[in-house]
Each structure stands twice: as structure tokens, then as C-alpha cells.
Specification:
The complex is a heterodimer of chains A (229) and B (149). Chain A has 229 residues and is α+β, with helices and mostly antiparallel strands. Chain A has helices at residues 6-34, 39-53, 68-72, 76-82; strands at residues 60-62, 65-67, 90-95, 98-102, 116-127, 130-132, 141-143, 150-155, 161-168, 171-175, 182-187, 195-202, 209-213, 216-228. Chain A has four helices and 14 strands. Classes of the chains: A alpha+beta (229), B alpha+beta (149).
């Protein structure tokens, strides 16, 4: 051992040098993995979600208001052609917790690491039909309880009575000098509550008017678009 | 030869050689393998984020109406990735980021409404880039252009 006293210290020094080098590489690797983001996939998902709720989309009535029946009839092919989902990506569209349309390989995803997911709050609208039969005894006017863009007015005033004009919020929508009869479609305003007034001569029969209108019933829900490229 | 006086010399020479070999090995390991891998990975990450930003700005440039449009978005992109300039190419409905290094590159399809055609164009990363949408209603074209300095 006479001439080898510095060799152990050299060995110790080299080991001490290696430790921070390895630590440095491990920290750098961890930092890189933590900051990785699937940027292009995320951007594609956001874009598809924006297209689904935009006002020019086929499934919407207006921006952020989706039509329920058209939404439920969405298919993966339509998503690929009309909404820009890439051909090689898996896609799932869900309303709340219910999956509406998905490619085949989505039996147990989306998990937290599979694909990118975008949620937004939307209104889902159903067209419903309601009919009211006002009596028109005193005021010759009726206010519709729901706003609606159009309606059908069915008049049967009877032999003694005559309705010559129907106005919606002061605007004439139906007019006939000889008296209106039968069913007529009228356009109304969706932006204000409509009051229909009738110009009546003589005595009207019972139930002279029946008004059918189709208001949109809406409820709020979450639209979840998940895409895995 | 007097062996007793030589052995410290041999010992120090041995120690020096071991240390020099160690340094050489570590340097080769880092510069040859580990560092280029990490530079490539970071470069690819930056390329993907740049590509995603350009895609997002293309979406914003296209308005929701289908009428005659002249729209332009000016976008700043990193001048270099990994110390080398790169190209952004629109080609056949695809947006590609082309970089001289093999390990860096991004490509994806660009989706536009039916009435917008994507014109093939190539832009260098050195200057700000312009995303231009122009044309009559029903026949509009999307192009990438460079900003004149």
C-alpha cells in the first residue's frame, strides 16, 4: 500500500462527481415530462367544440343553443366532414354524463390521460307544441305565454260572428274583409311577448279561435367533446 | 533502476489517467447522447406549440359569415427553434412545420368551411407572419404571407 494512498481519494472524488451529474439529468427529465402538453391535439379539440356551438353550425338554433333532435342524430361521419374532426382521431361527444356519439374504440375512455377534453355549458332546445283556446269574450285579445317565432291560428267564428283582422303586437298578420276562417300560419317575433288582438263583428261562437304555437323549451347542460389524435 | 523512488510517480500517473479517462467518458456521454436528445425533445415541444398557435389563429381569422371578406391576422412566431430557422408550409390542406433537424416536425390538417380554399404557401420563420383570408362570398382563399420588414 505504500505508493497507492491517493487512489482511494480519487475514487471517492469521482463518485462524488457522478452523483450531481445524475441528479441533474433526472431533474431535467422530470421537468420536461411535467411540461409536455399535447398542443396540437388540444387545439383541434377546442376548434371542434367551437364549431359545434357556433351560430352557423347545422345543430344549433343560434350560438350556444343546440337543437336536441339534431344533436342526437349526429354521427361520427358528420363530425368528420362538417365539423373538422381528423380522420385518424377518436372522438366522443357527450351531453352531461350521457355519451351521444363516439367512435368504436371508446368503451372505457375518456380517462384523464386519454385525449383532450373540452366542456362548455350550452342550452339544449326542444321544439314543443302548445295549443290554447281563448274565449275572446271581453277583450278580444290574448297574450301568448311563451315567445315563439311562428304559430297557426285556426278560426271558426260561427254563423253570427266575423273576425276581419288579427294583429300581433299591433302589426296586422291576417286580414280579410269577408271574415277570416280556417287555419292560417303567421310569423311572430321571437324577441318580444306576443299579444294577438282580433277585430270582431257580431257574436262569435264558443271557442272561435284556437292558437297553436311551437315554443322552444330549453334547458342547460354541459357539452363535452373529447378527442384523441 | 531504483524501484522505491519510481512508485509515487507511477501512482500519480495512474490517478491522472483515471481522472482524464473519466472526464472524457462523461463528456462523450453527455454531448454525444443525452444533451442532443433533450434539445430535440424541447425543440419538438416548441414546434408543436407554435403549430397549435398558428392553427388557432387560422380559426380566428375565418369569420362566421360567408360574405365577401378581407381578413388578416398578424402573428409572431419564434424566429428559430434549436438555433435554426424553420418554415411553415400550407400544402394540400395541411399545415406543416418543416425544420432542418429530422427529429423536429409537425403536420396536421387544416379544416375550413366549404367555401374557403387553402392556397399553397410557404413562410420563413424569420419575420412575423400574416394569415390572410380574402375573396368574394362563396369563393375565398386562405394564404400565409410574410410581413415585409
Amino acid at each position: 500500500m505504500r505508493a497507492q494512498t491517493t487512489l482511494p481519494s480519487v475514487a471517492v472524488a469521482l463518485v462524488l462527481l457522478t452523483i450531481p451529474a445524475v441528479l441533474g439529468v433526472v431533474i431535467a427529465d422530470g421537468s420536461l415530462v411535467a411540461n409536455e402538453r399535447p398542443a396540437v391535439e388540444r387545439q383541434t379539440t377546442v376548434a371542434v367544440s367551437d364549431r359545434l356551438v357556433s351560430q352557423t353550425a347545422p345543430v344549433t338554433h343560434r350560438a350556444n343553443v343546440l337543437d336536441e333532435s339534431k344533436l342526437r342524430n349526429l354521427s361520427v361521419d358528420r363530425l368528420r366532414t362538417k365539423y373538422g374532426v381528423p380522420d385518424d382521431a377518436s372522438i366522443a361527444v357527450a351531453l352531461g354524463d350521457e355519451t351521444l356519439v363516439a367512435t368504436d374504440d371508446v368503451s372505457d375512455w375518456p380517462g384523464p390521460d386519454d385525449g383532450s377534453s373540452v366542456e362548455r355549458i350550452v342550452h339544449v332546445a326542444n321544439e314543443t307544441e302548445r295549443t290554447i283556446v281563448p274565449t275572446l269574450t271581453d277583450a278580444h285579445a290574448v297574450t301568448l305565454p311563451r315567445r315563439t317565432a311562428n304559430g297557426t291560428i285556426d278560426l271558426s267564428p260561427g254563423p253570427d260572428g266575423n273576425v276581419s283582422t288579427v294583429r300581433a303586437n299591433g302589426r296586422v298578420v291576417l286580414h280579410d274583409e269577408d271574415g277570416l276562417e280556417g287555419a292560417h300560419d303567421v310569423r311572430l317575433s321571437r324577441y318580444e311577448t306576443t299579444t294577438l288582438t282580433f277585430d270582431v263583428e257580431g257574436d262569435l261562437a264558443a271557442d272561435p279561435v284556437s292558437i297553436t304555437f311551437r315554443p322552444l323549451e330549453t334547458y342547460r347542460s354541459r357539452l363535452v367533446v373529447t378527442l384523441d389524435a | 533502476m531504483d524501484n522505491r523512488a519510481v512508485s509515487p510517480v507511477v501512482e500519480k500517473t495512474l490517478a491522472t489517467t483515471i481522472v482524464v479517462l473519466y472526464i472524457g467518458a462523461m463528456t462523450t456521454l453527455f454531448v454525444g447522447g443525452i444533451v442532443p436528445d433533450y434539445r430535440g425533445a424541447t425543440g419538438q415541444e416548441i414546434a408543436e406549440r407554435t403549430h397549435a398557435t398558428v392553427l388557432a389563429e387560422i380559426e380566428t381569422t375565418i369569420p362566421e359569415t360567408e360574405a365577401r371578406t378581407t381578413a388578416q391576422t398578424r402573428l409572431e412566431v419564434p424566429a428559430t427553434i434549436r438555433a435554426t430557422g424553420y418554415d411553415l408550409v400550407l400544402d394540400g390542406g395541411e399545415l406543416r412545420l418543416e425544420h432542418p433537424a429530422d427529429s423536429i416536425g409537425v403536420r396536421s390538417r387544416v379544416w375550413t368551411p366549404d367555401d374557403v380554399t387553402i392556397a399553397d404557401s410557404r413562410v420563413d420563420s424569420g419575420a412575423d407572419l400574416l394569415i390572410v383570408l380574402e375573396g368574394a362570398g362563396g369563393d375565398r382563399t386562405l394564404t400565409l404571407r410574410e410581413v415585409d420588414p
